[in-house]
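FAQ: What does a ligand-bound record look like?

Like this one, built around nicotinamide-adenine-dinucleotide:
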Amino acid sequence: MTKAVLNIGLVGSGFMGRCHANAFRSVGGLFDLPFNIHLHTLADVDDETASLQAQKLGFAHSTGSWETLVDNPEIDVVAITAPNALHEAITLAAIQAGKHVYCEKPLSTTCDSAKRMTEAAEQAGTTTLVGFNFLRNPLIHYAKSLIESGDVGEVISFRGRHAEDYMGNPESPHSFRTDPDGGGALADIGSHIVSMARFLVGPITNVNAVTETVHKERPVKPGSSERRPVLVDDVAHALLEFGNGATGSIDVSWMMTGRTMDLSFEITGTQGAIQFSQERMNELLVWTRQGGDGNGGFRKIETGPAHPPYGNFCPAPGHHLGFNDLKVIEVAELMECIEQGKPHYTGFREGYEVQCTIDAMLLLPNKTNG
Ligand SMILES: NC(=O)c1ccc[n+]([C@@H]2O[C@H](COP(=O)([O-])OP(=O)(O)OC[C@H]3O[C@@H](n4cnc5c(N)ncnc54)[C@H](O)[C@@H]3O)[C@@H](O)[C@H]2O)c1
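The answer part, i.e. the structure of the complex:
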């Protein structure tokens, strides 16, 4: 039977736009999809940029106006990889036009905005997904299965951090990431570790955080001598209480020198413990009390076909998945949700919950600190 065609409109062609395009292009060869994916239109800041990037990334059409893309009745799914401050406007227009929406994290940069997006999507019955791609790692699902089966006992603590160094240099210029309407380390990377904590341990009911802006001003653009104040957080340290009684902490920094991608955690249970860092994303370190005394030390588990959907990529263990593969898995999950009309576990409602925890850490009005 011929499969229906699903037309994709992508807004943005930077770091994440390329990653989305790669995933949409390759997912059909790796997963048995319910649709044939067609890369329909790419939108970017102007016609020239959009046209160039559309050719490179394999889109049939291009436009310098995201509004034009969203209004096109042929497009079924709008994928948003534009700066954070644009997420709400593009999403609301796309929902109004009857599209499914696949939006990069953070869903938005305030809880109120994320709520408007979530309620609009739920009222329209559209399928949504927020790009918390690190949760697609098969080993993270294996970690969750160890927790759910009771192998590590009752979870008593989650110590997590997301630490990178891309803003460590005071000469790193302003970008949408330092835009007061759309940025800060907590929104940018804190959203990933908060989503990880919620996925593995459960809802966070209380937070208490300190945040700091370390570099008080930055160049307005690369190499410029003109500097503007920085009004967003560089670093955050938060204490957490979870609804199930576990406690923990989260550290977030985009200026942790020496760190490239330390999205990491240690989960302590009464009968065992689990450690992970995205810098070694194909390894999970596990300790369980089984075996008694003399059983000290974590055991390294390497990802392989026993951890689905690794086998879709490679039949042999230890050959490793990469960052872009997580996006391919994410797109496969999106296709299944669209076909079955079921919510995704990181649909907009989850993006909203994550943002509320971040608002509470930032002590914004309307925090949901309980
Ligand atoms: N899931 C992840 O692991 C991950 C990683 C990096 C970034 N992100 C998220 O992806 C989004 C984009 O980040 P990025 O690193 O790709 O940024 P980027 O700066 O590399 O790319 C942004 C793109 O949006 C385009 N753009 C800007 N304004 C636009 C407009 N008005 N209309 C259309 N296009 C416009 C830019 O020209 C560029 O192509 C952000 O929300 C960010 O938080 C997610």
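Follow-up question: can I read anything off the structure? Yes, for example: The chain has ten helices and 16 strands.
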